[in-house]
Design goal:
Elements (H helix, E strand, L loop, with lengths): L2 H12 L2 H12 L5 H8 L3 H14 L2 E3 L10 E3 L1 H10 L5
Helix pairs in contact: 1-5, 3-4
């Protein structure tokens, strides 16, 4: 991902609080599940699942268990890690 694209992704993440919550959780955990983040943050699982789907579409995360319908686990992609580096210390 080009530097300009990273800046655009950072702005995209910062524009919605559930996205920042997700990145903060990804910073603290090697892999995440929607229900775990929802429990930690007092958000609805649906809200966090929506953020996970957005991140997956943007290529920032990868599902480790795509064949499952529930309890899916996600990790950051290399692009996601680069975006997290830019957010760390400034926004999360």
């Amino acid at each position: 991902m080009a530097e300009n694209s990273i800046d655009e992704m950072v702005n995209w993440v910062v524009s919605v609080d559930r996205r920042l919550i997700l990145m903060d959780s990804m910073k603290r955990h090697a892999s995440v599940r929607a229900s775990d983040i929802a429990h930690e943050t007092s958000r609805s699982t649906q809200n966090i699942s929506h953020a996970l789907k957005e991140f997956e579409i943007k290529g920032l995360i990868q599902c480790l268990t795509p064949d499952k319908t529930t309890w899916k686990k996600y990790i950051l992609t290399d692009d996601g890690k680069r975006v997290l580096e830019q957010l760390d210390g400034k926004y999360i």
